[in-house]
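Ticket #4471: structure export looks truncated?
Reporter: QA, pipeline team
Priority: medium

Steps to reproduce: submit the single chain below to the structure queue and open the exported record.
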Amino acid sequence: MQETKAVEQFPEGVTLARAGGVAEITLDRPADMNRLLPDVLARLHALVERLREDAATHAVVITGGGEQYFSMGILNPAIRASFSKEQIIELVMLANRVFDAVEALPQIVIAAINGRVLAGAVELALACDIRYCAAHATLQMPEAAWGGFPGAGAPVRLPALVGRARALELICATREIGAQEMERYGIVQGVYPGAEFRDSVRAIAQRIAQNGPLATRGAKKIANARLAPGFQHSRELSDSLRRALEWSADVDEAMAAQAQGRKPVFHGH
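Actual output as written to the record:
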């Protein structure tokens, strides 16, 4: 994307830039770690719905503003304390709808992971078709340390990329990994120095956009059909277990521990 033809700014902190058949969506709240606020998720959903019918756009890039965070995700214990359980479930289900819509786009969707990617933002990146990261980027899914599991698709999508055992290790051990591990595990398809990162990803997106749209969209449709048989059941199970989890004693204990500045003691119910 050598020349930006049009840029749209939104009050929710999302930017859309278009050029040469590529649409670049930026989660543009660097002062707030590009957090996926409810308004940000809603705006992202609206943009995705627009792009779904856009025959002139052949590749989509999703990235974060600044150099530090792709996004810190949706929730952490401090933030979730301001929501009711019903609101938490509503927010998680909204994220699922948005990320499913990202995955269902007919265009090739690239996650340009420009910095730290945490929690629900990992699940957004996993919903993209291809991922690249800056050399300083890190990835972590800390939800198990909060008494939960990623509820917006990670246990469904991650095993297809890294294998069942590695996916369970990353989710259940909450281990933070760097760019080289992300590439070695197959989470990202390339790592670039920070100064070259954005231009490198834009060049790839442009190359995809310049190829035949029947070819790229058809290849994506076939690849998605190959993965479809077990996907829906896993997604339904994820939603069911995530709803039940919200009313568990372990989640209440995690919240109490956060408020009291201590480690949680989980009992598995």
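Status: closed, not a bug. The export was complete when the record was re-opened. Leaving a note from the reviewer for reference: The chain has a mean pLDDT of 90.
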